[in-house]
Design a protein that fits this description.
The chain is an alpha+beta fold. The protein has two domains: about 10-175, Dam replacing family, catalytic PD-(D/E)XK domain (PvuII Endonuclease, Chain A, 3-Layer(aba) Sandwich); about 185-255, Winged helix-like DNA-binding domain superfamily/Winged helix DNA-binding domain (Arc Repressor Mutant, subunit A), CATH 1.10.10.10. The chain has eight helices and 13 strands. It has helices at about 10, 15-30, 80-90, 165-175, 185-200, 205-210, 215-220, 225-240, and strands spanning about 45, 55, 60-70, 75-80, 95-100, 105-115, 125, 140-145, 155-160, 160, 205, 245, 250-255. The strands form three sheets. A seven-stranded mixed β-sheet has the order 1-2-3-5-6-9-10. Strand 9 (about 155-160) and strand 10 form a beta hairpin. The protein binds zinc ion. Zinc ion binds near residues 34, 37, 58 and 61.
Length: about 260
């Protein structure tokens, strides 16, 4: 789990974050595997690829790496807002890897969020940079980790211990049906799935789901038909195998 900090590396780079970038990318190139297929290695992309750091040589799944010293907070600063929203709408987001390393260069935690878990509800628009900034007017975004459905946070390393790759792959495979939902409506599907997880019961009713109507309305301010949308998305989740309809207005959770 160590990042292998060679002597001399510290001298070659200006800052600790630059060293971290080199070490964590090296580690991923050595240790990572594809969660979507049996490939036991990932390939690096050309260095100037803006949002993709690795891809699977067998199935071409794209991966982007983010790394930091401390534990991830609920809000992660990301790149420009508009290109991120466009990527979500066009279904081009990469799988994201969140790597946390310790001060003695060991990998403490590594989380994978599959690409189909990113929706507009997960992206927060930041204030434009002020007139004094070098890129005045530029608008960045934050990734709201807390708005990602728990199902979409797959642990590869936890407290310095790697989890079995077969568990990671089976988790990815279980969730993959979500990628078949059109990107225009997938945001709704994910928000309603997150609601189901928040309800947290094996069986729940439509009226319990409606308790989340205001919250969902806030995430989708232009939608005037939130309750019908909730019912529609519960059907989508049933068709994807997450839920079972047991009686009118009564649902049972299948996948946990
Ligand atoms: Zn693959």
């Amino acid at each position: 789990m160590n990042l292998q900090c060679e002597p001399g590396l510290a001298a070659a780079y200006k800052s600790r974050s630059q060293i971290a970038r080199v070490l964590t990318e090296d580690w991923c190139a050595r240790e990572l595997y594809c969660a979507a297929c049996p490939s036991n290695a990932l390939s690096r992309t050309e260095t100037n690829a803006a949002t993709v750091d690795f891809f699977c040589p067998k199935c071409a799944q794209p991966y982007q790496l983010k790394s930091r010293l401390n534990a991830y907070t609920s809000k992660i600063t990301d790149a420009a807002y508009e290109p991120m929203i466009r990527a979500i709408r066009e279904d081009r987001t990469p799988n994201l890897l969140f790597l946390q390393y310790s001060s003695n260069w060991a990998v403490s935690n590594l989380l994978l969020v599959p690409r189909f878990f990113f929706s507009e509800s997960v992206i927060e628009k930041r204030k434009p940079l002020g007139p004094g900034a070098r890129r005045a007017g530029w608008v960045g975004c934050n990734i709201l980790l807390g708005n990602i459905v728990p199902d979409g946070r797959i642990s590869l390393v936890s407290n310095g211990v790697a989890l079995p790759s077969k568990d990671v792959r089976s988790r990815f495979a279980e969730m993959r049906a979500l990628s078949g939902v059109r990107p225009e409506t997938r945001g709704w599907t994910l928000d309603v799935l997150r609601m189901v997880r928040e309800i947290g019961k094996e069986n729940f009713s439509l009226s319990e789901a409606y308790d989340y109507a205001d919250q969902l309305q806030a995430l989708h301010p232009h939608n005037q038909h939130v309750r019908p949308k909730i019912r529609q998305q519960l059907q989508v989740l049933r068709d994807l195998g997450f839920l079972r309809f047991v009686a009118p207005g009564q649902y049972a959770v299948i996948k946990h």
